[in-house]
Amino acid sequence: MSEHRHRATLIPGDGIGPAIADSAAAVMDAAGVKMDWDVQPAGMNALERCGDPVPPSVMDSIRERRVALKGPITTPVGEGFRSVNVTLRVEFDLYANVRPCVSLPGVKTAWPGVDIVIVRENTEGMYAGQELYTGADRSSAVLVAFNTRTAMLRICRYAFEYARRNGRRKVTAVHKANILKKFSGILLTCFRETAREFPEIATEERIIDATCMEMVRRPQIFDVIVTTNLFGDILSDLAAGLVGGLGVAPGGNYGDNCAIFEAVHGSAPDIAGKNLANPLSLILSANMMLHYLGEHEAAARIDAAVRDVLMEGKYLTPDLLPGSRYGTTDLTKALVDRVH
Ligand code: NAD
């Protein structure tokens, strides 16, 4: 275990965020990782406290520390402030959103043996576009969105390099270039160009709708997937559902010299403050952060503790074990007890 003290930003976030952030920090601590957290508000809680959902202090902290663990943030639907997540991704140019979806022992699912990594372009496409209402009384709306060669080439390169680094065999490009010939086609052109530099890795091209169908029919055929922003967001929730739901789906947002790790799920306001939140998604995201920080051994021990607790099947939150009387704090304690 490294003696190095890692300086990172911790954003507890909204809803269940603070409870699962406490849980993740406790498990890392129990694993002996020395973290020097700078705890920063962002989201609804920051808006209420400081009048700004993304206060300058959080941006300064990430700018200086270059690594953050972030709880989920509530985003008002249809009105209100721009998504904090989108702001952070764009500001720090976190262009690669990596979401591994792996079958875990003890988690009941329709399919065993799923091991998919979705590499989603994070800075362009529909989510980075400009929206406006047109016509009288908001009778229509337009979105102006773009995908650039620069961003498509770098996300494809990221996916192939990820595959090479992690001994993966195949990268699938997911697109809708049969209809969106230019907007989606630009990913395909860049994918084909990049693939030439990685001859040992098999390639495949699939249309988004057919991909969704295959993913629920034969998820084991997928390995690494590279895709654009909106498709990546939807596909990674689909893939998370295949391996047991949002409660066990981690994510990392990587740029060239900064990374922010976060759970795939949202702030779950329906269960906030009830000790019902499953912290595993954020804990597994923290594990991705530990790998990023070079703490591979501690990450492996946390991963083993997670598998152990899941196999035992006792101290699980109700989303994993319907009717369970155990909550966030019990699951955290079970992990802390095993991770030493
Ligand atoms: P959600 O993921 O918060 O919740 C969907 C369902 O899953 C709810 O029933 C919830 O109780 C359950 N759930 C989610 N995480 C859970 C966990 N860890 N343990 C147990 N159950 C869990 O999605 P939503 O309700 O559509 O969104 C709520 C808010 O979160 C919205 O404001 C949305 O914009 C925001 N959001 C934030 C992020 C993020 O910060 N990365 C991601 C998605 C949604």
List the helices and strands and how they pair.
Layout: E1 5-11, H1 17-30, E2 34-39, H2 44-50, H3 56-65, E3 67-70, H4 84-91, E4 96-102, E5 115-121, E6 130-134, E7 140-144, H5 149-165, E8 170-175, H6 185-195, E9 202-207, H7 208-217, E10 224-227, H8 229-242, E11 250-254, E12 259-263, H9 280-292, H10 296-312, H11 328-339
Parallel strand pairs: 1-2, 1-3, 3-12, 5-10, 8-9, 8-10
Antiparallel strand pairs: 4-5, 4-11, 6-7, 11-12
Helix pairs in contact: 1-9, 1-11, 5-6, 7-8, 9-10, 10-11
The structure holds nicotinamide-adenine-dinucleotide (NAD).
Could you characterize what this model shows?
- The strands form two sheets. The chain has a ten-stranded mixed β-sheet, with helices on both faces. Strands 6-7 form a two-stranded antiparallel sheet.
- With 340 residues, it is an alpha/beta fold.
- It contains eleven helices and twelve strands.
- Helix 5 (149-165) packs across helix 6.
- The radius of gyration is 20 Å and the shape is globular.
- The structure holds nicotinamide-adenine-dinucleotide.
- Nicotinamide-adenine-dinucleotide (NAD) is lined by residues 16, 72-75, 85, 246-247, 262, 265-271, 277-278, 281, 317, 319.
